[in-house]
Amino acid sequence: MTQLTVTPDTAGITDVPGFEAAGVACDIRENHDLKRLDLALLFSLRACTAAGTFTKNAVKAAPVLLCQKHLAHGGPFHGIIANSGNANACTGAEGLRNAQATAQRAAASLNLKPTSFFVCSTGRIGQPLPLPRLLKGLERAVSEKGRTPVHGTRSADAILTSDTRAKTVTVSFTYDGKKHFVSGMAKGAGMIQPNMATMLAFLATDFSVPRSFLQKTLSEAVAGTFNCITVDGDMSTNDTVLVLANGHSGVSVGEKSPRELRVLFAEAVWKACEVLADKIVSDGEKITKVVEVKVDGAASAEDAEKVARAIGNSLLVKSSWYGDDPNWGRLADAAGYAGAKLIESKLDILYNDTPVMTAGKPHAELKSRWKEIVKARRFAITLNLHLGKASFRLLATDLTEAYVNYNKSE
């Protein structure tokens, strides 16, 4: 079986043949910092199929509504315009007009239809978008776009907000003598609990992929990656994941393709999403730890997820992680109030591979080992409910006073 090659910290989208990118500074934050990039353009001259997943928040930003509308239109698609520093959310009819004007300007500059562009925003909610500056920057982005690694990294930098670093990945594999690519870039550090966080992620591939198969592949990958992370338990108004397939390779992958090719493509998309999701949670605002919460043996998948999220979002649990305190009683407590079927006398809890509780009975003699484990930057907690076969895995973070200080005012 062909193996995937996974390379993090790449140029991202421009690793995929046929895709160009640009990142420019246009003072969207209105702080006159013209060195900070805040507008990204991703572009394929070749027409693309597309798929997307979006926030389930009832309050959706104008760009999310526009993306959903354009996606429903069916394409063809040619690119994505994304700004940081302003979410264009809770901005009413004006916000939607501004998102539409952005797509229209890109389309006019490249002699394409407005529906061929997706528009995304991230940043502060409730502020009017400084449209004249954005459109001026967009004109520069169109003229400066290119395929070099610098173009790719600048576009990845341009979508960052409270992130401390860019997030990119390239997954490649060779099939029938030809090398293929799935590459991506993402942003996100706070307001992170996607069901589909304030997070954006953009993927690209050189395969030709029918829309329905592309959507199915993306939705499955997002469900098992981006939707399995939490920093603070908050779901944003702007969450968007988009994938563009430009067919540059001349190879199509879909339901009628050989099974090996379908599996490889799905695994490549999943792996790209998995790497980017891990980068997001690892860059959570002011965190010091990433904790993998695994729930096994649940009566249902819903129960497994309830228990994992109750633990991963508990302020008491997250605070104890920050304090290097193996306070397993808080884990048991959170599991108990999660609303899932749970019998205490069947419950097992482990820190990494070290037992904390077996069949409801604690292992107090192992406390010193628990303490060493929870001092680490990353560790795992496993709960086995012994009530079924369902499981769920969540990546969570600790909670620090620095997080509170960072978010107590704007």
List the topology elements.
Blueprint: E1 5-8, E2 19-24, E3 39-54, H1 62-73, E4 77-84, H2 92-110, E5 117-122, H3 131-144, H4 149-158, E6 167-175, E7 178-187, E8 200-205, H5 211-224, E9 240-245, H6 259-282, E10 290-298, H7 301-312, H8 315-322, H9 328-337, E11 348-351, E12 354-358, E13 361-362, H10 367-374, E14 378-384, E15 390-397, H11 401-407
Parallel strand pairs: 4-5, 8-9, 10-14
Antiparallel strand pairs: 1-6, 2-3, 3-4, 3-9, 6-7, 7-8, 10-15, 11-12, 11-14, 12-13
Can you put this structure into words, describing what you see?
This protein has 410 residues and is an alpha+beta fold. It folds into two domains: 278 residues, L-amino peptidase D-ALA esterase/amidase (4-Layer Sandwich), CATH 3.60.70; 118 residues, Ubiquitin-like (UB roll) (Roll), CATH 3.10.20.340. Helix content is 34%, strand content 26%. Strands 1, 2, 3, 4, 5, 6, 7, 8 and 9 form a nine-stranded mixed beta sheet that branches. It has a six-stranded mixed beta sheet with strand order 13-12-11-14-10-15. Helix 1 packs across helix 2, helix 2 packs parallel to helix 3 and helix 7 crosses helix 9. It is globular and about 70 Å long. It starts with a strand and ends with a helix.
